[in-house]
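Design request, tokens follow.
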């Protein structure tokens, strides 16, 4: 008797690795933006840290390929990457008050 492979699969199977990956992304990204950006420029180490973070994401997704194969997990991961762009704007532009003119 053949049983389907997903019959005993946990409902939240891919949630643990996704949550840990997204949490690590946000913590590393927020710290890197705070350390490496000013109003006038972005330091080159930010790009080095982001390259390391991209390598880490590739490694984790490759290692847990079956957990990241679900469409829902891929959508959540994509939205989290877009959220990092919003986080960059909030931390590097708004929080530093870069657009405020200097008084005469």
């Amino acid at each position: 008797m053949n049983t389907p492979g997903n019959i005993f699969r946990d409902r939240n199977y891919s949630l643990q690795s996704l949550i840990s990956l997204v949490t690590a992304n946000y913590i590393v990204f927020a710290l890197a933006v705070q350390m490496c950006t000013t109003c006038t420029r972005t330091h080159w180490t930010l790009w080095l840290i982001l390259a390391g973070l991209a390598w880490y994401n590739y490694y984790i997704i490759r290692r847990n390929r079956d957990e990241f194969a679900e469409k829902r997990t891929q959508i959540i991961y994509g939205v989290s990457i877009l959220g990092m762009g919003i986080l960059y704007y909030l931390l590097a532009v708004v929080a530093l008050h870069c657009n405020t003119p200097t008084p005469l």
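Comment from the thread starter after seeing the answer: thanks! Helices lie at 15-36, 44-63, 71-94.
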